[in-house]
């Protein structure tokens, strides 16, 4: 069975169960009549369009179709032959496009979910803004700072919502930690840590250059800013190598990295990434302050621990969409809430640019072998 299809099927069973238990809305409850011209955004069903029907797009599409009260998935676009149609058949979506611009031109669509390859994100954000659509874009929003500035400006000029997929801001423990730091419960932040460890490095030959900074550690850079509210990075220094697949280092792949970041409030942070944690998908954070410490995240699938004659054992997760499932669903619900209210998202285009600035400085630090100021 196709791997993506199997994962999608598993998620469909899980989320349909939750929908039956707690959510009265299903994708078939998204009639054209709910989108009559003149209907107010606060009362009508929000119609979402998905660009990108790969692994992450499939998960976001399933969330949009089944797990956002008052919203539905109305259209899917993917240039890969058959990809959009496959997902549309699974989710009961009628409109299928191979050209993303056709979806952006659809007058019935209120908001766009961008889950296409990372190198296309910025231009899709700009095009969606020009089409007057609210935008949720998977990280990274852009690859260069110039792209980021153009994307932010396009959304501002069009006065549309722009949210970026920094899902850890919506994970309960990370959100609670942010609020604790902001309330001064651990005093002044002094040391921070954020790490991402993927379970396995699949197909290293297909990984673009600098992916560890631009697509993996970008989450950690945003997390460290989130856990140190009001502070900004002023200096970074990188140690990185290809320890898992050394034969690909000459092609530009780094699979292991530690980044030291100094913030303008004096705090020192480390961001760490590995592309092969054999024990499971591992996401954690820590803030040490003058009056205490906060830790968050973990690798366990649940709080179940087995104590048996052969030792202690716990299950772990192997996918980001398993470990952070609730956060992924929460961020899309937040996006729809922002579409209705006009509020600025908790993970904005400006947040994405700030994290990207750290990532670009990391590339410079690695190339120069020295600390780099932002």
Overview of the molecule:
The protein has 374 residues and is α/β, with parallel strands linked by helices. It has helices at 3-22, 55-66, 83-91, 100-104, 121-130, 145-158, 172-182, 211-227, 320-323, 325-341, 349-368, and strands at 46-51, 71-77, 95-97, 111-114, 134-137, 162-164, 189-197, 233-241, 256-263, 268-274, 282-289, 292-298, 306-308, 311-313, 372-373. 37% of the residues lie in helices and 22% in strands. The strands form three sheets. A seven-stranded mixed sheet has the order 12-11-7-10-9-8-15. Strands 3-2-1-4-5-6 form a six-stranded parallel sheet, sandwiched between helices. It has a two-stranded antiparallel ribbon with strand order 13-14. The chain is globular and about 50 Å long. It starts with a helix and ends with a strand. Mean pLDDT is 91; it is low at 1-26 and 31-39.
């Amino acid at each position: 069975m196709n791997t993506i299809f199997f994962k999608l099927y598993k998620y469909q069973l899980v989320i349909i169960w939750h929908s039956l238990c707690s959510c009265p809305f299903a994708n078939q409850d998204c009639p054209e009549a709910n989108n009559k011209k003149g209907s107010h955004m606060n009362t009508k069903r929000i119609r979402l369009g998905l660009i990108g029907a790969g692994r992450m797009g499939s998960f976001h599409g399933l969330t949009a179709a089944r797990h956002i009260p008052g919203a539905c998935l109305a259209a899917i676009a993917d240039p890969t032959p058959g990809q959009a149609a496959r997902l549309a058949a699974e989710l009961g979506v009628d409109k299928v496009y191979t050209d993303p611009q056709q979806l952006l031109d659809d007058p019935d669509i209120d908001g766009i979910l961008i889950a296409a390859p990372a190198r296309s994100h910025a231009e899709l954000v700009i095009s969606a803004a020009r089409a007057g659509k609210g935008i949720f874009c998977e990280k990274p929003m852009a690859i260069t700072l110039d792209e980021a500035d153009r994307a932010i400006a396009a959304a501002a000029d069009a006065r549309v919502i722009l949210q970026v997929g920094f899902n850890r801001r919506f994970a309960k423990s990370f959100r609670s930690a942010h609020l604790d730091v902001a309330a001064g419960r651990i005093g002044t932040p002094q040391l921070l840590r954020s790490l991402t460890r993927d379970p396995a490095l699949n197909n290293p030959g297909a990984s673009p250059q600098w992916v560890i900074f631009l697509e993996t550690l970008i989450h950690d850079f945003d997390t460290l800013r989130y856990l140190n509210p009001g502070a900004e990075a002023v200096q970074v220094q990188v140690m990185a190598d290809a320890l898992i697949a050394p034969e690909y280092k000459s092609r530009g792949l780094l699979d292991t990295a530690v980044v030291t970041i100094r913030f303008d409030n004096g705090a020192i942070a480390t961001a760490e990434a590995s592309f092969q944690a054999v024990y499971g998908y591992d996401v954690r954070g820590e803030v040490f302050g003058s009056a205490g410490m906060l830790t968050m995240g973990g690798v366990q699938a649940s709080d179940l621990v087995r104590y048996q004659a052969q030792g202690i054992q716990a299950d772990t997760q192997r996918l980001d969409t398993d470990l952070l499932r609730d956060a992924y669903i929460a961020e899309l619900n937040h996006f729809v809430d922002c579409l209705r209210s006009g509020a600025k998202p908790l993970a904005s285009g400006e947040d994405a640019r700030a994290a990207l600035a750290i990532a670009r400085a990391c590339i410079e630090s690695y190339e120069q072998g020295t600390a780099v100021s932002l």
